[in-house]
Design a protein that fits this description.
It is a single chain. The protein is of the alpha/beta class. It folds into two domains: about 160 residues, 3-Layer(aba) Sandwich (Rossmann fold), CATH 3.40.50; about 110 residues, no CATH class. The chain is about 55% helix and about 10% strand. The chain has twelve helices and six strands. Helix 9 runs parallel beside helix 10. The longest helix has 18 residues. The protein is globular and about 55 Å long. The two termini are about 40 Å apart. The model has no long low-confidence stretch (mean pLDDT about 95). It binds magnesium ion (MG). The site of magnesium ion (MG) has 8 residues, from loops.
Length: about 280
């Protein structure tokens, strides 16, 4: 297994790119329910409206079309929705403005903005973001792959190269995949250090895979978007139906992928199903 794109070697005519968080690894729910949401409640003192705040938090970040949204944008959207319901909650308009104008949604970029403005809500947002990172490192034993992932990867790897394409920290992803013995089925590991998912797919494509022989497997609209901009195929892991999704990938979708009948009607049917699953 190679880390990053540099030493990657194409060994098969087909390539399957697999997202990690919420797709192969059952890590999204626990991170949002134990780290992101609760740390916001702590930093902004929202204990009085805790229950409704968490419902809205989970809706925005996990169970709707904005699933997988950047943490800062998810924070702003949640606060907006909570305020719309008439609850008393801090005004995050300075944070919103920063998310809309910064060229990088990251803690260092937020620190630079704080140095310029000394804004209290930006400071709280940074405090929250750092507390979330700390809380996530303390979760370590809570991650598990979804049922069907290990078997699915083994079957995929019989006929296709596999690359992890993730926007999470590369080291953390490698540790998770190693600990759960998934890594032996993987030829490349591309984390956030390798660039956006769309960029990673484009780079992998340069090794000589035809676009119709590349499949992106993901759980969030951002994964579909990364596939679309590269004109490659997309297979959705449906939130709440992950096991079914992995089993169907191995038993049905893979055959269509190899036979060349995935694009068109079947692809559209999968995308429709993906969207309706996030709009319930
Ligand atoms: Mg994901």
């Amino acid at each position: 297994m190679k880390e990053g794109i540099k030493d990657f070697e194409k060994t098969k005519p087909y390539l399957v790119c697999v997202d990690s968080d919420g797709c192969a690894m059952d890590t999204m729910d626990v991170k949002h329910q134990k780290c992101f949401g609760p740390k916001a409640i702590e930093v902004w003192g929202l204990q009085d409206i805790e229950e409704r705040f968490m419902e809205i938090w989970n809706e925005v970040n996990l169970y709707s079309i904005s699933r997988g949204i950047n943490r800062f944008k998810g924070l702003v959207r949640t606060f907006d929705l909570v305020a719309e319901e008439g609850y008393e909650i801090s005004d995050l308009s300075t944070v919103k403005e920063w998310t809309e104008t910064t060229d990088e949604l990251s803690n260092p970029s937020l620190e630079r903005e704080i140095a310029k403005t000394d804004d209290q809500q930006l400071k709280k947002t940074l405090d929250w973001s750092l507390k979330v990172n700390q809380a996530i490192t303390e979760l370590s034993d809570d991650d598990e792959p979804f049922s069907g992932v290990k078997e699915g990867l083994a079957k995929i790897n019989d006929g296709a190269d596999i690359a992890i394409v993730s926007s999470a920290n590369g080291g953390a992803v490698r540790d998770e995949w190693t600990r759960h013995e998934l890594i032996s089925h993987v030829q490349a590991m591309l984390g956030q250090e390798s660039g956006t998912k769309a960029h990673c797919i484009a780079e992998l494509q340069k090794f000589g895979y035809e676009p119709t022989k590349i499949l992106m497997v993901g759980d969030a609209p951002g994964d579909l978007e990364a596939a679309k901009v590269n004109c490659v195929l997309y297979y959705p892991i449906l939130v709440g139906n992950e096991r079914f999704s992995w089993e169907r990938l191995a038993s049905e979708a893979l055959t269509k992928f190899y036979e060349g009948s995935f694009a068109g009607e079947y692809q559209q049917q999968l995308i429709n199903e993906f969207h309706s699953n996030l709009q319930k």
